[in-house]
Amino acid sequence: MRATDxxxxxxxxxxxxxxxxxxxxxxxATLGLDREPRQVARIYTDIxxxxxxxxxxxxxxxxxxxxxxxxxxxVSLGRDRxxxxxxxxxxxxxxxx
Length: 97
What we know:
The chain is α+β, with helices and mostly antiparallel strands and 97 residues long. It is 38% helix and 11% strand. It starts with a helix and ends in a 34-residue tail after the last strand. Residues 83-87 have low confidence and may be disordered.
């Protein structure tokens, strides 16, 4: 099992964000590994780079999937000139300089 998969399972089982040190300890325990500085640094780096994880501040890490989906604002292209529509649906004119 990869370390990031183990960390993901630890957080899923916890059900809430965890302090990074606790997350690392639980991940290492899940993998049956000792807490060695190089190992801890590698796992921390992997967590940082894995899109499934999200830093919540104050050394707390959670899962990105726990964030509510925010409605995105879509921008539509104008029909004729490729300009953007404003909020009223009217095409904005491009300034040619």
